[in-house]
Amino acid sequence: MDCILETKKLTKEFKGFVAVDQVDLRVKRGSIHALIGPNGAGKTTCFNLLTKFLTPTSGQILLDGQDITDLAPAQIARMGVIRSFQISAVFPHLTVLENVRVALQRQLSNSFHFWKSERSLHNLNARAIELLAAVDLEPMAALTAVELSYGRKRALEIATTLAMEPKLMLLDEPTQGMGLEDVDRIRQLIKKVAANRTVLMVEHNMSVVSSIADTITVLQRGATLAEGTYAEVSKDPAVMEAYMGSADAELKGAH
Fold it and tell me: Which of 1, 67, 113, 199 is in the most buried spot, having the most CB atoms within 10 Å?
């Protein structure tokens, strides 16, 4: 299997509490891989380890076979591991187009050009419009970001993430707090942008996970409980037991 990201016995302890417990994760290139689990399962901590916002207590993280365990967050980002919704900057009083253009500047060797005339940045407009078209925001290019609905802001954040040319996109709860219409829009958007990329996502909405994830890893108390397709993990007795109550009903309701 061609893995873009692999962890080996990835572990994080906080003063004796084991938040992530020897997790072996293998994310296949070109796939959508979902990380799920009950509250407190260690999903966000795992994401923080992968993007180096936290340092592992032990274990290894490999990107394209290269050990990145000891690298800094900025180095990881430059290698193409981009975490959306956490580090994507959406400036509320810039236009939708300007937001994407700022993200595109990060790809230039001389970085941000806030002191240059706006005209000098117009050569980035064509690419910015392409990215907005990819997330169905091209008609809203002239609006300020503050005018967008919550779901459209999330779409803009995906566009700014795409501007960073990600090799691996990490989406942290992309549909959290959304109504049904926005959830469906973001679900379709993730599937669209993942067509030629790799996506690793933490997501609570089982209808989203069941409809777009190729592989699902279930965490419980920081350790891997099960892994496989949605059909496989949703029938796993250990997973069903972990999702007792409302979460169990949510799992069953997504069939």
Answer: 199
Tally Cβ neighbours within 10 Å of residue 4: 22
Q: Show the domain range for 174.
A: 1-80+166-255
**Structural domain ending residue among the three candidates 132, 165, 198:** 165
pTM, full prediction: 0.87
Same domain? For 131 and 240 the reply is no
- The torsion angles phi and psi of 109, rounded to 5 degrees, stand at -65, -30
- The CA distance from 216 to 32, in Å, is 9
CB atoms within 10 A of CB 187: 20
How is the chain split among helix, strand and coil, in percent rounded to 5? Answer: 40, 25, 35
Number of domains in the chain: 2
CA-nearest of 128, 86, 136, 126 to 106 is 128
Residues 92 and 158 in one domain: yes
pLDDT digits (tens, 9 = 90+) for 62-92: 999 999 999 999 899 889 999 875 444 588 8
Instruction: Give the residue among 69, 72, 56 at the shortest CA–CA distance from 18.
Output: 56
HSE of 119, CA atoms in CB hemisphere, 13 A: 0
Q: Nearest to residue 12, comparing CAs of 38, 47, 37, 39? A: 47
One domain, residues 176 and 75: yes
Q: Are 222 and 19 in contact (CB under 8 A)?
A: yes
Domain end, chosen from 165, 198, 232, is at 165
What sign for the dihedral angle of Cα 149, 138, 92, 102? positive
